[in-house]
Each structure stands twice: as C-alpha cells, then as structure tokens.
Amino acid sequence: MSISKRLFTFSMVVFLLGAAAAAQEPDVPPPVAVTLTAEQARILEGIRANDWRAIRDAGRSRNRIYLEALAAALPRRRDIPGDYIVQEALAQLGDTGQLQELWCWSIGERTYSSSYISFRLAQVGGWFAIRAFEYLMSPTGQTHWERALRYHPDKNTDVAVLPPKFYMVEALPALIPNSPIPYTAGAEHVLADMWRNWIAEHRAELSLLQPTGEGVDYSPSACKDGKPRDPRQRRHGIKSGARR
C-alpha cells in the first residue's frame, strides 16, 4: 500500500472514531470566558479587601457574579457588632439561605421594631420584599408582630408603637416601578388594604422582580424563634441588632 493510501486510511479511522465519540457524548458548549468591566473588577477587588463600599455596590448591582466573593467575605465580617452588610448583599443577589434567614427574622416573635423590619426588607427589595410586606400587612402578620411587643422595651410606657403597615405603605412605592398608589400620611390603614389588593391582582408580573425569593420556604413551620428550622437553610447566618 502506498504512503498516500496509508495516510488516507489513517485519516478516515480518526474521522470515524471522532464521529462515534460525538454521537455518544452530549453536545456541551465550551466554557465561555468572562471579561470583567473595570467597574466589576473594582468591586471584586474591594470585596476581597473587605471594603464595605464595594460589598454594598455588589449587592445593589443585582449581578450574581459577586456571589462567590461575597460568600468568602462573610466570615471576615460576621462577628462585627451590628454589621450585616455582606448578608444584605447576598440577599439582594438572591442567595436563598440569606433570604430564608431574613424572612424568619422578620416574622420572629421577638422582632418588634416595625421600622427596622420594613427597612431591612426594603433594602433587599424585589418580589421577596413585596411578598413579605403583603404578609406582614395582613391580619396574620399583624398578630405575629403583636406577640413580639411583649419584648418591646417601651411596652409599659405611653410611647406610641406603630405596626409594620405604617412603614411599609411608605416604602412600597419605591419598590414597585411606576407605583400606582402614592403614600399619604394619615391614611396608612386604608393604604395597607389597597396595597394588599393591588399586589394580589398583579402577582404574576411582580413575581418577576429580583430577588424573587425562589427557594424560600414561607410556611409557618419553616421558622422557629426567628430562625430557619432546617439547619441546611441557615447557610450563612444573619444577625439581628442595631441598624447600621
């Protein structure tokens, strides 16, 4: 057999082996290299340097490329009193563990500060916060909060303690694009009912707002003493404490 025929035969064998392998393996696309912008590189470098401004910017960006760096940063800030900026950023990016922690904390029967509950949820935003607001403005949510008043330091004084709905109807217009219900001071009870009805009617489109809270267990049995009952849902931990 001539050299040219041998080369041709060898080429055909290689081709047929390659074709057979391709037929057996799934069509997996090659990995795509991610090219960071200057801003993304700045934020990632800042997270690794423990810069709280970069951590804040990562959460506000809603870009999940920062999740891994934020998870690595959490142990470095976990024990700083009153500091939960990494937990907040992770929640803003849709981290299920952090969202579950925040949900359980917000309905905990030792969580009595209405303004603080509203603030924490509004910082995260998305359908997750809107859904939590809807629940906390309901009669059932009001009952949870009233039980928490047992632990309020001003419970035996004349200091007025307002329910969550008073703060939530003020925060909701900023969470919903083209909000149809403006805030009017003094009409909080009426506004709460209006908002609950409107949210129920527009649930389909609102449920697309990020973070959506996908994977969060909103059932009453999911939480105990303000924390997730299932330890597997307590991936990173979220601290209560004073507002920073």
Account of the 3D structure:
This protein has 244 residues and is an all-alpha fold. It folds into 2 domains: 1-93, no CATH class; 95-239, no CATH class. The protein is built from 12 helices and 2 strands. The protein has helices at residues 3-24, 38-48, 52-61, 67-77, 85-92, 96-106, 114-124, 126-136, 139-148, 164-175, 188-201, 203-206; strands at 223-224, 227-228. A two-stranded antiparallel ribbon has the order 1-2. A hairpin with a 2-residue loop joins β1 and β2 (227-228). The protein is globular and about 50 Å long. The N and C termini lie far apart (83 Å). The model is unreliable at 3-32 and 234-244 (pLDDT under 50).
Tell me the number of strands.
2
How many H/I helices?
Answer: 12
Number of domains: 2
Strands across the major sheet, in which order?
1-2
| Classification by helices and strands | mainly alpha
H-E string:
HHHHHHHHHHHHEE
Helix share of residues? 55-70%
In whole angstroms, the N-to-C terminal distance is 83 Å
Shape designation: globular
Instruction: Report on the biggest sheet.
Output: 2 strands, antiparallel
Mean pLDDT, nearest integer? 81
Strand content: under 5%
